[in-house]
Specification:
Blueprint (H helix, E strand, L loop, with lengths): L1 H5 L4 H8 L3 H8 L16 H16 L9
């Protein structure tokens, strides 16, 4: 992207070199893309998640096994 922005490489040459469609480069260069997060929204905040992980590891040290259900 720096080479295109600096004018040392054209969109066409960059797309051929990296095998990326010109429209994708153009959209990325001019901010027409949206960042998307894959997967469902977070249910727990990071702190809550860390507490759950610590609890699971402490139960594992005591000899409890994680029960898998199908």
């Amino acid at each position: 992207m720096d080479a295109i922005e600096n004018g040392t490489t054209s969109l066409y040459k960059a797309s051929r070199h990296w095998n990326i469609p010109i429209t994708s480069l153009f959209d990325h260069l001019y901010g027409k893309t949206k960042s998307r997060k894959c997967g469902p929204a977070n249910v727990l905040i990071v702190k809550e998640d860390q507490v759950v992980v610590a609890w699971v590891f402490s139960m594992q040290r005591l000899g409890y096994q994680l029960a898998y259900t199908s």
